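Dig into these lines:

——
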Amino acid sequence: MSAHPKRFGVAAGDVLLVLAGLGLLAALAYPRVERRLMRRHADEARAHVEAVGAAVAAFRKEHSDWPPSGELGEVPPDLAAHLPRGFSFRAGAFALKCDRWEAVEPLPEAEAEPTYEEVLGPAPAELPLSGALDSTLVLRPPVVAFGAITVQAEDDRILAALLERFGPTRSFVRDGAWTLVLPPEGGSGERIP
């Protein structure tokens, strides 16, 4: 038998060496994990935008109009029937908003105010053009409706990924939010009376 019994244990230096190795592995893996997580959030945001876009298109086909605007993170009631069951406008990394925008189209510049005859053709003989009815016609500029889907996110990389996916000609980033403009079909607006 030996004079010194065998000791079982781990020296403090060995523990520190193992912990340092684990810390180094974690530090090397963290950026990769973070990129995957951000990519997953960006893909989820893109899928949500595409689902809302499809719902807006279905609403427009059914109603020949744009849906009313909603609040950030809330599904507009008029769109709910066109979205998948349980669809949410709020996810852990972002929130969506659907908007109806209107813009006034400028009238073409003219030398003088157009007359009734220039716009509508010759007046019928039985319609007097004096007194109650003036011979000039005031043209109101047409109002064009279009839509927009906005994504608000704390991580600007999600917004940058959406801008890259949908392009800067259709979307823009401003004030921590990305907005996709849904133009009127064919480039010409739907005139609102």
Notes: The beta strands are 94-104, 143-153, 171-174, 177-182, 190-192. The CA atoms of residues 60 and 170 lie 19 Å apart. The helical segments are 12-63, 77-80, 116-120, 156-166. The chain has one domain: 12-106+141-192.
